Amino acid sequence: MENEQAVKRWLARAEDDLDWTQASLKEGIYYSACFSAQQAAEKALKDT
User: Fold this and answer.
1) What angle do CA 34, 4, 10 make, to 5 degrees?
2) N or C: which end of the chain has fewer CB within 10 A?
3) Which of 12, 8, 9, 42 lies closest to 34 in space, CA to CA?
4) Model pTM score
5) Which pLDDT does position 32 carry in this prediction?
6) What is the pLDDT of residues 3-26, one digit of tens each?
């Protein structure tokens, strides 16, 4: 149960990073988009 909650927290953080990625892409800030996309991928895989 505790592990499941940790996974949900990491996935929520990954979704936040994806929102930041989309905002960065919209503004043409590609280095930020790349970084936040990479962070989202790491967080999505963490504790799974």
Assistant:
1) 20
2) N
3) 42
4) 0.84
5) 97
6) 888 889 999 999 999 999 999 999
